[in-house]
Amino acid sequence: MQPTEPMPSYEQLVRRSYRSLVGALRSCTDCGWELSCRTWAENARLVWTEPLLFLLGAVGWTLARSAASRYLFRPFAEWCQLPPKDAAKMPESAWKLSFYCISWLYGSYLLFFAGYPFFHDPPSVFYDWEKGMQVPVDIAVAYLIQSSFYAHSIYATLYMDAWRKDSVVMLIHHVVTLTLIVFSYVFRYHNIGILVLFLHDLNDIQLEFTKLNVYFKYRGGVYRRLNDGISNAGFVSFSICWFWFRLYWFPLKVLYATCHTSLQSVPNIPFYFFFNVLLFILTLMNIYWFLYIVVFVAKILLGQLQEVNDVREYDIDAASKTTDKEIHLHNSWKEGNQPKNGIVKDKRL
């Protein structure tokens, strides 16, 4: 059993990862399509039942969201007498909050109660790695849940979610995440995948919970101080955790393990550059969304915003203009439609 390696500093991350990446590039004398095909044939493992379960899961999530929105979330929003604009967006946040709570709690169980040391000792994700190794059932379940959900999310971003300023980036994020999940399973990098998912899901919980409290601030036409206070506290918590989980722990735990210590455990680890490029793209998107947080804080400090709102929304600057357009939106929402790019778009399957 190897001793636990202490978490590096940013300086150590950059220096050691750069050295490992450059060394791997120099030693790759026959990199190209032929090597990729040969590596795929030698290391990829997948049985036909797994893609079938994946597709069934993606369809199942889509049908479950449609049913939950129609028979649970929308009636609840109408019963609470939410403003039409907020009532149209509430089911989306309620659905995502429900899923991410379940997935993050299950990820927490795997990392802290199931005996896996990956969080406290990230380099251990590559100890004893072997091609085609057996995936533990509890981790395989997590992968099935997450992969099918992100496949559903690609469809949902295009046809079910409200369209926002960052929706294209969100779509790219879902494609990158799904690619990472599927290929990390195929090449048996499932241990690091569980850690990546855990470090990202908590922020989604905080985001959707905060948005729900924003929507509930004016239910029944009455200002609710409690929901306003919770949304403010939620934004502060979300901002801190975003930096801590995605911009501190994620690079120092995940990128350090995949870029540097992976080569120490498995010198010729398959598709080393492919996975690290995808993880770097994910890091850049985390930085991109963190800029939205910075912009929001700047608007608060400059007095351009007086309350917590989603600065990604197209209608953020026109929140007070609710006359005929809002009435039309309310009627469309009651008929089962949601807003997309300022236009009410039919969302039925």
Keywords, separated by commas or semicolons:
349 residues, mainly alpha, two-stranded antiparallel sheet, 10 helices, 2% strand, globular, disordered C terminus
Concise account of the structure shown:
With 349 residues, this protein is an all-alpha fold. Helices cover 69% and strands 2% of the residues.
What can you see in these coordinates?
With 349 residues, the protein is an all-alpha fold. It is 69% helix and 2% strand. The protein has 10 helices and 2 strands. The protein has helices at residues 10-27, 33-43, 49-79, 84-112, 137-159, 167-186, 190-215, 225-265, 272-301, 324-334; strands spanning 337-340, 343-346. The chain has a two-stranded antiparallel sheet with strand order 1-2. Strand 1 and strand 2 (343-346) form a beta hairpin. Helix 1 (10-27) crosses helix 8, helix 4 (84-112) runs antiparallel to helix 5 and helix 5 (137-159) crosses helix 7. The longest helix is centred in the last third of the chain and has 41 residues, at 225-265. The protein is globular. The model is unreliable at 316-336 and 338-349 (pLDDT under 50).
